[in-house]
């Protein structure tokens, strides 16, 4: 045997027409192979070179496809998928006070969360998301459901001043939240985190306790912040402080904090976020649908702020397709900045991958196709006539595609989606359970 016949053993070799590795930035590779061993990426190299260097147990040929890192949906309320289309065409506070909170009071239970979270995961997997962040009731059920499905998830336990189906108030939320952190903190798939709902629902005391818990455990904090002009105006009226100022003065703005929405920002707000190293999670479609406002994404990026992207829940979006979200984000960024060059296709793709990984503190092993990182990746089939001709696959992914073109995904090196079919979720059984919820919810609405 000569030296050049020695090959390295691998588990999966994916032969892709195009690879967008995200790192290095703005790169499109052609006819490359991605080599996976166990849960990690071993190499991303030209297919000719792979023939000489690796021998994989399984080869997957994707001749019309782009392969890229799995998408990271950085904000949502997964089980709210069961409320999709229940209350449309309303502004945030009417939507919450008069429709969503009453519905949550009636229906939230462990089974609602299990079924709704599975519905959301099926949609997210089908459209290219491999990691999601959740902020909802019964986070222990969400964590178990994500783990069972083999999805990665940041699971934020909810924190509010008032009682909900999950607890009687802050004391109980913290007790159950500490259990959640202890149970999952070393898990490879689940990242337990702290979810103070919003400045207008959580007072200073619990926010200070959240900060202490984060410092003690390393758990990240995710909070709705500056979602609407009403939120900012009311805060200024009652406390003479903008919400970002109040949160900053409590000490809560920092590199472990993810601020969701961030519309209505003035220069002082942007300075505070930039100086603190906090992350912003942009949810453009929820902001549009609830007429909440616009996040000045390009200004934030220009100030060096890490901007990730999320869908928010399916009751305010009304889907969990992150590719659709990217298209909206790119369009809004251009008009907001009055600059067609704002948020390029490659920048948008980075928002849904490496920027999400940074917000999670997981950029060392998620968010790009780099040897040594975890094998969380997706393939998008560009053979559809509506996606022809292909000059630039990055352009198509953001401006022409929607998530249904996602054909394959792997998480931790395990196939989750093969030729558009979910491998680990029984969709027929799930549909029966979802329809049963629809009947219960509909009957109660018409009563
Ligand atoms: C603390 S559990 C999450 C809580 O948040 C509600 N919610 C869903 N979407 C939004 C949004 O865009 N802004 C504020 N609150 C939202 C959800 O219904 C739960 O009650
Ligand atoms: Zn939300």
UniProtKB/TrEMBL annotation:
Cofactor binding summary note: Binds 1 zinc ion per subunit.
SUPFAM superfamilies: Composite domain of metallo-dependent hydrolases, Metallo-dependent hydrolases
Pfam family, one: Amidohydro_1
Family note: Belongs to the metallo-dependent hydrolases superfamily. MTA/SAH deaminase family.
Alphabetized UniProt keyword annotations: Hydrolase, Metal-binding, Zinc
Annotated binding of substrate, by residue: 104, 197, 227, 312
Annotated positions binding Zn(2+): 75, 77, 224, 312
Catalytic activity, reaction form: S-methyl-5'-thioadenosine + H2O + H(+) = S-methyl-5'-thioinosine + NH4(+); S-adenosyl-L-homocysteine + H2O + H(+) = S-inosyl-L-homocysteine + NH4(+)
NCBIfam families: PRK09045.1
Protein name: 5-methylthioadenosine/S-adenosylhomocysteine deaminase
Cofactor: Zn(2+)
EC nos: 3.5.4.28, 3.5.4.31
Any one GO molecular function term: hydrolase activity
Enzyme class: hydrolase
Domain spans labelled Amidohydrolase-related: 66-413
Organism domain of life: Bacteria
């Amino acid at each position: 045997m000569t030296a050049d016949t020695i090959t390295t053993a691998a588990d999966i070799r994916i032969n892709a027409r195009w690879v967008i590795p995200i790192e290095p930035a703005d790169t499109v590779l052609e006819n490359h192979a991605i080599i996976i061993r166990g849960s990690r990426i071993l190499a991303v190299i030209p297919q000719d070179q792979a023939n000489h260097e690796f021998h994989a147990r399984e080869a997957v040929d994707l001749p019309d496809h782009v392969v890229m890192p799995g998408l990271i949906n950085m904000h949502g309320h997964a089980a709210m998928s069961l409320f999709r289309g229940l209350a449309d065409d309303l502004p945030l506070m009417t939507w919450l006070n008069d429709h969503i909170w009453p519905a949550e009071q009636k229906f939230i239970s462990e089974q609602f969360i299990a079924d709704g979270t599975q519905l959301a995961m099926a949609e997210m997997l089908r459209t290219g998301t491999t990691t999601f962040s959740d902020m909802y009731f019964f986070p222990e059920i969400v964590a178990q459901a994500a783990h069972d499905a083999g999805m990665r998830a940041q699971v934020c336990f909810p924190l509010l001043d008032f009682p909900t189906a999950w607890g009687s108030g802050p004391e109980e939320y913290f007790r159950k939240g500490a259990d959640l952190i202890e149970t999952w903190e070393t898990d490879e798939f689940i990242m337990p985190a702290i979810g103070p709902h919003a400045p207008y629902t959580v007072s200073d005391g619990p926010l200070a306790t959240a900060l202490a818990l984060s410092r003690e455990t390393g758990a990240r904090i995710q909070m709705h912040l500056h979602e609407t002009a009403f939120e900012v105006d009311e805060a200024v009226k009652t406390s003479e402080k903008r919400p970002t100022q109040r949160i900053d003065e409590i000490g809560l703005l920092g590199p472990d904090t993810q601020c969701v929405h961030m519309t209505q920002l003035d220069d002082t707000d942007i300075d505070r976020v930039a100086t603190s190293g906090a992350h912003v999670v942009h949810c453009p479609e929820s902001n549009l649908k609830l007429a909440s406002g616009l996040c000045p994404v390009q200004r934030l990026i220009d100030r060096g702020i890490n901007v990730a992207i999320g869908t928010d829940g399916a009751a305010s979006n009304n889907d969990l397709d992150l590719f659709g979200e990217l298209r909206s984000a790119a369009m809004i960024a251009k008009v907001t900045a009055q600059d067609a060059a704002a948020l390029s296709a490659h920048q948008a793709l980075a928002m849904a991958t490496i920027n999400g990984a940074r917000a999670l503190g997981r950029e060392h092993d998620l968010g790009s196709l780099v040897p040594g990182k975890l094998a969380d990746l997706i393939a998008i089939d560009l053979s559809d006539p509506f996606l022809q001709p292909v000059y630039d696959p990055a352009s198509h992914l953001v401006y022409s595609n929607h998530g249904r073109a996602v054909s394959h995904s792997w998480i931790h090196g395990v196939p989750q989606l093969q030729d558009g079919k979910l491998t680990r979720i029984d969709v027929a059984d799930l549909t029966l359970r979802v329809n049963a919820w629809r009947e219960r919810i509909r009957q109660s609405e018409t009563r």
